[in-house]
Write a structure and sequence with these properties.
The complex is a heterodimer of chains A (589) and B (153). Chain A is α+β, with helices and mostly antiparallel strands and 589 residues long. Chain A is built from 17 helices and 21 strands. In chain A, the strands form three sheets. Chain A has a twelve-stranded antiparallel β-barrel with strand order 10-11-12-13-14-15-16-17-18-19-20-21. Chain A has a seven-stranded antiparallel beta sheet with strand order 8-6-5-4-3-7-9. In chain A, helix 15 runs antiparallel to helix 17. Chain B has ten helices and no strands. Helices cover 63% and strands 0% of the residues of chain B. Classes of the chains: A alpha+beta (589), B mainly alpha (153). Chains A and B meet through helix 7, strand 4, strand 5, helix 8 and strand 6 of A and helix 1, helix 2, helix 3, helix 4 and helix 5 of B.
């Protein structure tokens, strides 16, 4: 009935169904199709809907909205046109509305003015080296104020989970199960720069999108609508990256970003690739982290100047006397950059110890009457993270085991392994979620490996963990094994190679023959050679003292880029004398 | 499959991220453990300021009141402190340029004066409020800046 009334009032009967099914209306309210053919909105705050059934009915929600639009505007700020300006924009553009009902919205106007949106950027912060969990970066939206304003005063739109006070376990479980709300905030971009660039030393990449002023306005208004509501936050699906894409899809209805993404999860670097595929990227810019800045400055110096900095790193004494002014300035700048990077936390908290080192340098620098050279980071643009490999990987391979041929098929859902091309991914880190490997000798198919999780990271500290199913080689037999194995140890990080040693433990269940649970231990000795992002080599000796009393030596070389790779490997069991050699083709999606 | 992912991620996260949890996708988790020591940069990223921030009103008129201008500049100095003092000492750079634009100054003149008066602007153990007061004094005492800075406070 309401539908009829609404339809009669505004436009010829019969088009109402077309309107509530309009893609942009469905996106404005964040509806998804359900399995039964209905709709359900991802938004969970009640205030987001005007109709009590609005969460599941785009039709009733539109009716309720249109009914409100018929009314004379309510008191300022509380009118639906003020609360839902993007919906109102959509209605004005697509429906015939009576004129003259323009509301007064001081708060909305103040927000629009504060943001002063002229352009939209998607900002990607690179992996956080100190934490493998953030290995895949973070994305958020930046609303630009235009060329005449400083980038720092732009507005960062962050969507994050509110879980104050939750411990890590509750946090993780709740985050996966959607127990905590995700909310938005709009803060000056400089807070984001300081947090990521300085505090965490993460590079920032800004992707400027080719959005028109009208599309930018739509996005800003939609962000305003999202401000007071919340969404149940799911780490894998309804996360920051998906929300960001949803806002972009509202602003430009003709694009479909989600179709490029894997069904089960969304990771930030994958979302950048979707921007590229939909041709939304106008330009890319790079903002170096505190560490990137420091190392770049170091590269620009000759050996003698660099020595001064390394001495300073050792004893905080910096000798710049006698240097020409220009060089004195640059050495001081570099030392200051090192303090900002090394003592980021202390500097941010303005702790006395860090200030006591930094301040004399600053005072000295202020007395050197020359300008520092403008640093050029344009070489970094070819490293832009949308050029990273796809996180899904298919492997086709074949080889010989003890002279017998076999074929090999493996699939990885996500994310990265240290022999993969590591642009936009952390180096010397494997973080794989759900991977399986099938082998066949032509007669039978074997499940060689099924891991739910496989992590190995070389850094400080170096550690590994793997959970799932694998095959243990024991007295010339393959034994199906389920369990967890892990390790902890040390690695040396050189520029193009990293030797490592990890203690190894495992707790596993052998289903074939033995039907026994086992506890095992041993050690891994190995090294990674990373000649370039594209070409890597790993060699490792896995010694198992108990219960297998076996040694396995593995070598693997891989040449790969963002889409394809080839690999060669061999495995030798030292005690049994078994030999395996193989080759593989890798495809990244 | 979702269940498997779930289980493995729980294990993964609790084992590996006990110290400072981050999202599988790296997002949302990023800032959640920060902000407990009262630092502004850290706090701003975590506080539940969503709706408040959205509703901030700078009044209905076109101008910004003096106290809001003061708060805006003070926030900027406080949040960008490390980078700002570096830029002031060099007499160039993004932070000092941005601060200059907030004061409505010509950034070349402003930056040169910040560098010249660096030692008095940032005495030892200073805080953002003091630094702001010192910058205001420099502007006030300098003929060129006094005329030039249209939003000086």
């Amino acid at each position: 009935m309401g539908a009829l009334l609404g339809a009669l009032f505004f436009f010829p009967a019969g088009s109402f169904a077309k309107d509530w099914k309009d893609l942009q209306w469905l996106r404005l309210l964040h509806y998804n199709k359900t399995f039964t053919g209905g709709y359900l909105s991802e938004a969970d705050g009640n205030s987001f809907f005007l109709h009590p059934e609005g969460k599941s009915s785009p039709e009733q929600e539109l009716e309720a909205f249109l009914t409100q639009l018929k009314r004379t505007p309510a008191e300022s700020d509380n009118d639906v046109r003020c609360l839902f300006p993007a919906r109102y924009r959509w209605a004005r553009k697509n429906l015939e509305l009576p004129s003259g009902n323009e509301p007064v919205c001081p708060k909305l106007d103040a927000f629009r003015k504060r943001v002063s949106g002229k352009s939209i950027f998607v900002v990607f912060s690179s992996y956080y080296l100190n934490n493998p969990g953030s290995s895949f970066g973070h994305t958020f939206i930046r609303i630009g104020k235009g060329e005449t304003s400083s980038e720092l005063l732009d507005t960062g739109i962050n969507y994050g989970m509110m879980s104050e006070g939750a411990g890590p376990v509750l946090y993780t479980v709740g985050g996966l199960a959607g127990w905590f709300p995700g909310t938005f905030n709009a803060i000056p971009y400089y807070y984001k720069v300081r947090e990521y660039n300085d505090y965490e030393s993460r590079d920032l990449w800004s992707y400027r999108l080719n959005f028109t002023q009208e599309e930018v306005d739509m996005a800003v208004d939609h962000i305003w609508e999202l401000g007071p509501t919340y969404f149940d936050y799911y780490f894998l699906t309804e996360n920051c990256s998906q929300m960001m894409l949803a806002i972009l899809e509202v602003a430009r209805p003709s694009i479909d970003l989600k179709k490029h993404l894997p069904y089960l999860y969304t990771i930030p670097s994958d979302t950048l690739k979707t921007l590229d595929k939909e041709k939304l990227i106008e330009s890319v810019s790079y903002r170096p982290s505190a560490s990137s800045l420091f190392y770049h400055q170091m590269k620009l110096m000759d050996e003698a100047r660099r020595k001064k900095i390394t001495t300073f790193q050792e004893n905080t004494e910096l000798d710049v006397e006698g240097l020409p002014e220009q060089e004195k300035a640059f050495v001081l700048d570099t030392a200051i950059s090192w303090i900002d990077y090394k003592y980021a936390k202390e500097i941010l908290k303005q702790e006395e110890k860090a200030q006591a080192i930094k301040r004399p340098l600053l005072v000295k620098r202020s007395k050197v009457p020359v300008r520092s050279p403008e640093l050029d980071f344009s070489h970094m643009l070819k490293e832009a993270p949308h050029g990273g490999h796809g996180s899904q990987r298919l492997v086709l391979g074949g080889g010989q085991f003890d002279g017998k041929n076999f074929a090999d098929l493996s699939w990885r859902f996500a994310f990265h392994d240290f022999l993969d091309y590591d642009l936009a991914y952390p180096p010397r880190t494997r973080l794989e979620v759900v991977k399986f490997d099938l082998q066949s000798d032509g007669r039978k198919v074997y499940l060689q490996d099924l891991s739910f999780l496989d992590i190995m990271t070389l850094g400080t500290p170096s550690w590994k963990i793997k959970m799932g199913h694998w095959q243990t080689r024991f007295e010339k037999n393959w034994l199906s094994t389920e369990g967890v194995r892990g390790g902890y140890g040390y690695s040396y990080q050189a520029k193009h190679w990293a030797p490592y040693v990890l203690g190894h433990f495992e707790t596993s269940y052998i289903s074939e023959e033995l039907h026994k649970a086992k506890l095992g231990y041993g050690a891994d000795l190995g090294f990674i050679l990373d000649f370039s992002r594209n070409f890597k080599f790993n060699s490792v000796l896995e010694l198992r003292a108990h219960p297998w009393n076996e040694g396995l030596w593995m070598n693997e070389a891989r040449l790969s880029d963002k889409s394809y790779g080839i690999g060669l490997y061999n495995r030798s069991w030292l005690k049994d004398g078994d030999q395996e050699v193989g080759a593989k083709l890798l495809f990244y999606f | 499959m979702k269940y498997l992912l779930f289980v493995s991620l729980v294990m993964f996260s609790t084992a590996a991220l006990a110290e400072r949890p981050y999202g599988m996708a790296g997002c949302g988790w990023g800032s959640q453990m920060m902000g407990k020591d009262g630092n502004q940069v850290l706090a701003a990223t975590t506080n539940d300021i969503g709706t408040q921030t959205f509703a901030i009103s700078s009044g209905t008129s076109n101008c910004v009141t003096a106290s809001e201008q003061t708060a805006r500049i003070r926030n900027f100095i406080e949040a960008n402190y490390a980078s700002l003092v570096t830029d002031m000492a060099k007499g160039q750079g993004e932070s000092v340029r941005t601060l200059s634009s907030m004061y409505g100054c010509n950034s070349d003149i402003f930056a040169v004066q910040m560098k010249k008066n660096y030692e008095t602007i940032t005495p030892a153990n200073e805080n953002a409020v003091q630094v702001m007061a010192n910058i205001n004094t420099v502007i006030e005492d300098n003929e060129a800046l006094k005329i030039n800075c249209t939003h000086a406070i």
